[in-house]
Specification:
Largest sheet: 6 strands, mixed
Number of helices: 7
CATH topology: Nitrilase/N-carbamoyl-D-aminoacid amidohydrolase
Number of strands: 18
Strand order of the largest sheet: 5-4-3-2-1-16
């Protein structure tokens, strides 16, 4: 662990366009601004390299992880600025037919410390005709990922994952003090659920939550909700972005607040696994088995 008790985290709020090169320029400028203002950990949103709704165009611009120019540039930038740089995700080529939505945690030496493929695919039909089929283009991940920062352990997730609390509980039980949810939330679902879901993930696990977001109207005409958030383990919002503008939001992070929250409400120690008895099948009662903490 670092001898420094606190650190500064920054969320980069972007409005990614159709092509990787302008998005790299946009993201790099904001990352530099965050580092210049003292950020030691900087996170960008989901699909920082491009938001493409057209499958043909998407696959024309995809690169493999080994060949992706954005990843190479961000690794060099992290090394130059001597920061922990968390690229919320990049769309990368997985196979001729599938992409992956992959997050990268990069250290101050420019090395990739961890990567995570988004597990839960956003396949949904919203009222008003808005429809998404992420699984049509993307291969889902299968493994939860945790890594170490100088100030504690960090769990990696992406956007729609936040609706599946078991993932976050598993990360917290594995030692995560910081949970991440870089996102490109729709306006409709964001207005209804964004703040509530992320504050719940912080409160129920006694963790900080870092969620950089896409914002505004993209070249693809998609609209993203914005409101990048930094949330404390007790549920307080420490920093919040706008609903439509690009920029950065920052907050001082005190890792000691994790222990304070977990001692006050020790729910991580009290969790119990259970099976459900079907009332139609007989008079069995709910059977509880104590889970690991």
């Amino acid at each position: 662990m670092s001898t420094e008790p606190t650190f500064t985290a920054a969320m980069v709020q972007m409005c990614s366009g159709l092509l990787p090169e302008p998005n790299l320029e946009q993201g790099s400028k904001l990352i530099r601004q965050a580092a210049a203002e003292g950020a030691e950990y900087v996170q960008t949103p989901e699909v920082s390299n491009m938001i493409q709704s057209n499958r043909k165009a998407l696959f024309e611009h995809l690169a493999t992880e080994e060949d992706d120019l954005s990843l190479k540039a961000y690794r060099a930038l992290a090394q130059e600025l001597k920061i922990y740089l968390h690229i919320g995700s990049l769309a990368l080529r997985f196979s001729p037919e599938k992409a992956v939505n992959r997050s990268f945690l990069i250290g101050p030496d420019g090395m990739v410390l961890a990567s995570y493929d988004k597990i839960h695919m956003f396949d949904i039909d919203l009222p008003g005709g808005e429809s998404y089929r992420e699984s049509a283009n993307y291969q889902p991940g299968e493994t939860a990922v945790i890594s170490d920062l100088p100030w504690g352990r960090i769990g990696l997730t992406i956007c729609y994952d936040m609706r599946f609390p078991a993932l976050y509980r598993a990360l917290a039980e594995s030692g995560a003090s910081f949970l991440t949810a870089p996102s490109a939330f729709t306006v409709r679902t964001g207005e209804a659920h964004w703040h509530t879901l992320l504050r719940a993930r912080a409160i129920e696990n006694g963790c900080f939550v870092f969620a950089a977001a896409q914002a505004g109207t993209h070249e693809s005409k998609r609209q993203s909700y914005g409101h990048s958030l930094i949330i404390a383990p007790w549920g307080e919002i420490l920093a919040e972005g706008s609903g439509s503008e690009t920029g950065i939001v920052m907050a001082k992070i005190d890792p000691g607040l994790v222990e304070t929250a977990r001692k006050t409400v020790p729910s991580l120690q009290h969790g119990r696994r259970f099976s459900v008895a079907d009332a139609k099948a007989g008079p069995e009662h709910l059977h509880l088995v104590r889970g690991s903490s």
